[in-house]
Amino acid sequence: MRKPLDPERTQATLNEIAQRMAGEVNRGEVADYIPELADVSLNQFGIAVAPLEGPPLVAGNGDVPFSIQSISKVFGLVIALEHVGATLWRRVGREPSGDPFNSIVQLEFERGKPRNPFINPGAIVVSDIVLEHQPDGSDTHPVLDLCRRLADAPEIPVDEDVFASEVATGDRNRALGYFMLAEGNIKGDVRAVTESYFRQCSIAMSCRQLAKATRFLAAGGEGQDAKIAAVTSERVRRINALMMTCGCYDASGEVAFRIGLPCKSGVGGGVVAIVPGIGSIVAWSPGLDEKGNSVLALRAIEELAHGLDWSVF
Ligand code: GLU
CA–CA distance from 221 to each of 49, 239, 260, 292, 295 (Å)? Predict the structure, then answer.
């Protein structure tokens, strides 16, 4: 059985981890295919835990905003499911891909139906649905709006420099979009859909804010956060299952083996991990491994989960 969260012990563990990570030499490499991300200082590490009740516990650079990138795919999925329910799965699969997040090869073999919602083509289909249902005249991106509400932080921005950088270098994502358009799996304008996708990736949040915003996934569809995100317990279980099997690119199996919690990473260096019934963890450090996952964020979550005996197994 999992032990309930003890705030003092958890805070002490977070402080120790943050101190250890500050002295780490092997920090990975920043993502440089989005030029704006290449300028982020490698020398940062933050971590936060949002318990189901009470304020988040934070250490290191846990209040420094970073680009949430692929982590936004979780929020996009919540919104798309709200709009179209299980019919979403006619357009997007639920299997790990084993290929890199922006691979085009598998998509061709599988006639434009992406393997899962957490690889880029899957997230682009999700963005197509989100955009199609965006109310006329609303000028806030639905994912930004959801993040702000869940984190109770109306100041959360889209980083316009990162957004411009993604639009400027986004040909591969547009190619995925056009390929799926040709296969009948995108309904909107590919430029508008991919821009909506880039915009949600460019949201900047701190570990503290992101931990608060993902806490509903640990609460099993109960409580105030679940009302804001309109998620049922069944949907929460499924999103967690997808995070566990597909949340960390083609290293998802390895991450499940090492950490034993549903996780979602992004190339900005953030990783979210869900401890059902206890809370959410967010760690961030911009240096990535060769699969695109933050080296120190994964290591920190692994140490925390092992130290406090948190696992779904
Ligand atoms: N905006 C990034 C891209 O589409 C997201 C990548 C990621 O975090 O996996 O390339």
Answer: 18, 11, 21, 30, 30
CATH number of the domain enclosing 275: 3.40.710.10
Q: Which atom of ligand 1 is nearest to the CA of 268?
A: 8
Integer angstrom CA distances of residue 298 from 62, 75, 97: 15, 21, 20
This prediction has a pTM of: 0.96
Question: 57 and 93 in one domain?
Answer: no
Ligand 1, atom nearest to 267 Cα: 8
Q: Which residue, of 201, 231, 250, is where some domain finishes?
A: 201
Length of the chain equals 313
Residue 120 Cα to ligand 1 midpoint, Å, equals 7
pLDDT digits (tens, 9 = 90+) for 110-168: 899 999 999 999 999 999 999 999 988 888 999 999 999 999 999 999 999 999 999 99
* Same domain, residue pair 42 and 76: no
What residue numbers bound the domain in which 275 lies?
7-68+205-307
Number of domains within the chain = 2
- Determine the distance separating the centroid of ligand 1 and the alpha carbon of 99, expressed in angstroms: 14
Q: Whose CA is nearest to atom 4 of ligand 1?
A: 120
pLDDT greater than 80 at residue 100: no
Q: What does the alpha-carbon distance between residue 85 and residue 258 come to, in Å, rounded to a whole number?
A: 32
Count other Cβ atoms within 10 Å, centred on residue 163. 20
Predicted confidence (pLDDT) per residue in 17-32, tens digit: 999 999 999 999 998 8
Same domain for 210 and 61: yes
Q: Decide: 45 and 19 in contact? Cβ < 8 Å.
A: no
